[in-house]
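Appendix B, Record 12. Input sequence as logged:
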Amino acid sequence: MTSLVLVNPKRRLSARYETGILSFAFALAATVFYLDTFTDIHSALATLYVITLLLSAETLTEKGTLLLTAVCVGLSILSYAAAHGTDADLAAILRLAVAVAAILITCALIIRNNRARHDLIKSNIALQSSEERYRTIFEQSRVALWERDYSEVRALLMKLKEQGVVDLRSYARANPNFIGDCIARIPTVAANAAALELLGNVSAQNAGSMRRYIAQDDETFLDLMVAIFDNQGYFEGKGTIITSDGTTKLVLLTVGFPVDVANFNRVIVGMFDITERELAQKALFEAQAELALASRAATVGALSASLAHELNQPLGALVVNAQTLQRWLDRDPPDLAAVSRSAERIVRDSQRASDIIQSTRSMLSEHTPVLESVSLADLVSETKALMESELSRNRISFETSEAPGITNVSAVRIELQQVLINLITNAIQAMAATPEELRRILVSINPADGRGVRVNVRDSGPGLSADILEKLFKPFCTTKKTGLGMGLAICRGMLEARGGSLTASTQTEGGALFEMIVPMEAVHE
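Logged structural output:
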């Protein structure tokens, strides 16, 4: 239950003084009641109750004022009843009505005034609290903050605009003293500890003007003036300042301009020291340049290794066929038919070496390799023919199988042939320790569930260990003493660049299995 508080507990005057005022007000009310009731004065004496209300307004609460108003109105009606009884007197009734109206209006005005004063006090308290919070943030922030008066420099800029200046930068170039004049028109109202520390632990008095701290060749201040000239609401830019000890620092300057022009006398300016960040970024750019240089060197090395690896087979075949041709010529009589076959193989291997070089050049240039319709079955047969001498020399059985309905793919023929030759060559070398009667390579061609065509190359060698499988396709990973370790990495890269894939696994019954996925339509990367 709410208690009935009649006297305002938040006294603004002393208790003795307020008690005296209330006593005088009640005495006045009693005097007015006596005169209005027991004398023959024909006037609206009841209106003097208004003085009682006014005297009590500072002391009573809103409820106390309403109660006192009710008492005053009651006394006025009681006086009228005692003086006139039941006799109707129009003049007396009018005097009573005037008095009651005056009392009620005075009560309403007192209550409204008290409420307005209460709201004003609350607003002032909230404003003081907000100012205290702002000052706490301003003083204790580790960000360098200034309060500066931009009102005078803004007036100068607006005056120039009125005089017809459109391009402030051109005006500044034509008037060398313009920037200095603008700086002189911007006094510092306040600066926090971080701002003074940024300038070199200077005193607040020395930070009043920024003239000595702004680098002469700095363009950021002019950019700031242009922002004010163009009536922008916010400005951010990188600038250079010179501290009290002569050290140059790079800073990020942020300024938020007020909407009300009258508030340009206190504009918040923030500065962030980004010297270390800029130096780190510069070091990063230099490191990236060095990395790019190293990357180009690595690319040249990888390309050399790639060419060496890919050209090794056709050049080796050229040597073998040339030696074979020479033996056929040394016979008496020479076997010209065999010579012709050897010459054809020399031409074929030479062309393949040329195609490899051309393919490598196309990868380095911006020219897109030519796609053509390729029958994978014919490509496997052609590759087998190319490697027939190696297969025969190593006593290896070569078998192929193709599922029905396999259509041609759109691909770069030389790239697919390079992959096949690499996989078959690896299979041949992997079976060096396998008994001759067990040496077998099986190439199968099957659909790849809508992804294209699957080409599997399987051998009957020892297979691949788990450790080798993890890094098999990484550059320079090899299990051969004389290998470069580039072949499989190159093969996977070529297939993936065209939207395909290359994976490896070891079969439970022995041997390694390499699976190529060749897309129906090759892509370019």
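The chain is about 55% helix and 15% strand.
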